[in-house]
Amino acid sequence: MDEKGWGFMLKIMASARRRPGMTHAEYCSYILDVHGALSRAKPLGLARYVQNHVYDSSFGSIASNDHLGHFHRDSVTELYFQTPADMQRTFSDQYVREVIAPDGRNFAELASNATVLTQETELVRPADSGAGTKILHFLHAAEGLESGAAQQAWGAAHKLALEAAPEFAAGLAGAIRSDVIPQANEGPDSHFGGTQESPVTLVVSLWIADAAVSDFRSYEQSIIANPAFDAGFSHFLLTREHCIFTA
Q1: Cβ atoms 174, 125 nearer than 8 A
Q2: pTM of whole model > 0.85?
Q3: How far apart are CA 100 and CA 38, in angstroms?
Q4: How many CB atoms lie within 10 A of CB 11?
Q5: How far apart are CA 219 and CA 145, in angstroms?
Q6: Which residues, other chains included, contact 151 with Cβ-Cβ below 8 Å and sequence gap of 6+?
Q7: Where do the domains of the chain lie, and which CATH numbers do they carry?
Q8: Which residues make Cβ contacts (< 8 Å) with residue 55, sequence separation at least 6?
Q9: Sign of the C-alpha dihedral, residues 213, 214, 215, 220?
Q10: For the segment 102-141, what is each residue's pLDDT rounded down to a tens digit?
């Protein structure tokens, strides 16, 4: 673990969309300036807090016209904890329960929030986490395949995808995989609302210059062609990263 916050033991990822009547710009402004400030005021057991503001995305597959997955995401929150005890202490704290959590209804459609608990592995350290585009690639295991088997299959699939997209590989400025693990307690789900998005097996964060974002498509198509993943439920978000707090 280094002083900038990469490689913490546990990371919660919460995907959210804005409440009705709110524009995307209003949503991003609120979570950055208002909700972010509330969190910085009393970070408790947090080691790091990042907001990823979505500016484009792709969901579903033309091969499946009955896709019923969650469409449209405005942001993904990443909360890092060094230990499970830090996580439990944070979500059980009175300030979090009475100030932070209730603020969610001011900006989010709580019923559609999707939360997963992950363990992060750094593959290529991001040179500058605030620059360019951060792509969040959500991968779902194929029907009938255990999550662990899909996670194991990703490494070889990633290598082949980089070979299939050399321009993307050459411009890759950071890569982190976050493997989904069972949630240890009810804190995260009760805090964010919604339910755990159970089919997701891992989330891959990829940093790339804006001019090279179009090169991602060749990489992505190679990944979802792998039979270990469900192309209909796997999706990706193009985001801007904002670090709210680092211990």
Answers
A1: yes
A2: yes
A3: 7
A4: 23
A5: 22
A6: 179, 201, 202
A7: 10-246 (3.30.70.100)
A8: 238, 239, 240
A9: positive
A10: 999 999 999 889 899 999 999 999 876 567 999 999 999 9
